[in-house]
Amino acid sequence: IFENYRNRMSSNEPMDGWEIYGHFGQSGLGRFDSEYIVPDQTLPLTNQLLYYFIGLTNFQANNETIIQPVIAWCGSSNCGFSYDYSGWQMASWNCCPQGLSNYGKGVQLKGGQAIQTYVISDPNKGNIQVYMSANNEVSSLNENGDYRSFNDAEITGEFYRYTTCNQFNSVPIEFKKMSIEDTNGKSVDIPPSKWTIINQNPLNCGGTIKVINNTYATITA
Questions:
Q1: Of 43, 62, 82, 94, which one is least surrounded by beta carbons within 10 A?
Q2: Spatial CA neighbour of 70 closest among 156, 129, 167
């Protein structure tokens, strides 16, 4: 999921894209883990599409891509990209290099569920992995021949097709047990003050991202 990333600071509402997020830049990032807690909230099925994820991005000229375990609220019967259901669901993404699988299996979710997630990059071996697991259901990607080097970590809310505040979740998605390593397996400790926070507060609905400590963050929209 990488649409409208470059122009996200200049569009008018409804903006569509990365609207509430934090990021941290460092070369040689190799792993990002988190346990997501799905908001225990049922939203109206009014065509909105809400994505939430951690991820690792490689910023290279004309070749910006991201590995990301994504949960989504799909406000229609089918939102594509492995999201084949209405409501909360999850799918692993590798967005979107040519010649590799871009989407893992879509899995339906319930509010309040815990999801174990990670992304891994080993540019020396040429391997990336994206993994999500909830209630013995797994969505994953394991791709060889991928030598990208990742240099930015993300905690993101990305939104499309919204017009009113009641289409957003007021109950936060939780990102618990966050941990980041470099490609040598060394822990990368990121205190809250080191995350760059961008909050477009779509429709002035009071959306927020809070990085509470080194291992815990939340997003509401």
A1: 62
A2: 156
